[in-house]
TrEMBL record:
Protein name in UniProt: DUF2569 family protein
Domain of life, per lineage: Bacteria
Transmembrane residue ranges: 6-27, 39-59, 79-101, 113-135, 147-166
The keyword Transmembrane helix appears for this protein: yes
One protein family per Pfam: DUF2569
Keywords: Membrane, Transmembrane, Transmembrane helix
Phylogenetic placement of the source organism: Bacteria, Pseudomonadati, Pseudomonadota, Alphaproteobacteria, Hyphomicrobiales
Length: 188
């Protein structure tokens, strides 16, 4: 698979331009940093993406249903299908936990968002190893170039958002809520 100059231009457009503006806005001096609170600016884009991420995982599961039905006829196929479905559902649960932490403005959001980012390649690798082991085929036959490129692309894009989450003043000011039990313990 070869990429033309237009493919690289599109990649630069989708990754480079948002990264440029994110870095530029991160170094832009703010007159009153305390005013940067809540879901606005770049954080609103992150919130929309996080809200849509479980739906994307669910759509991925749905689009694989034809492949799953074919795989169910193969020896050990049902075990592969059930394992992959469990893995994707576990990832979707993590995405929902991160979404809830974000909506509750929890202090744990940053760590959970980082864990979600790390889970992208972990899920991909575990899935490839699972299928390869159960079916007894080399990993190279299980993983397509398109799937690898898509996983790397999502990992890089999510990595830019992780950098934003850890550098943003708005994120630091917005995610300040701790559990009520921790607040009571600190007050005593």
């Amino acid at each position: 698979m070869q990429f033309s100059i237009w493919h690289w231009a599109i990649v630069l457009l989708f990754i480079g331009v948002p990264a440029f503006f994110a870095v530029r806005s991160a170094y832009k001096p703010v007159k009153n940093p305390e005013e940067l609170v809540g879901f606005g600016g770049w954080l609103m884009l992150l919130a929309i993406g996080q809200a849509l991420s479980p739906l994307r995982t669910l759509a991925s599961l749905g689009s694989s249903s034809d492949g799953y039905s074919q795989l169910m006829l193969v020896s050990n196929g049902p075990m592969v299908v059930y394992g992959e479905v469990v893995l994707l559902l576990a990832f979707m649960v993590l995405q929902i936990v991160v979404l809830v932490a974000m909506l509750r403005r929890s202090l744990r959001f940053k760590q959970l968002f980082l864990a979600q980012w790390i889970a992208i390649p972990v899920v991909f690798i575990l899935d490839a190893i699972w299928i390869s082991t159960i079916l007894g085929v080399p990993v190279g036959q299980v993983v397509s170039e398109e799937a690898l490129a898509a996983s790397i692309g999502w990992f890089v894009l999510a990595g830019l958002w992780v950098a934003y989450v850890y550098r943003s003043v708005r994120v630091r000011n917005t995610f300040t809520r701790v559990k009520a039990s921790a607040q009571v313990a600190n007050a005593a």
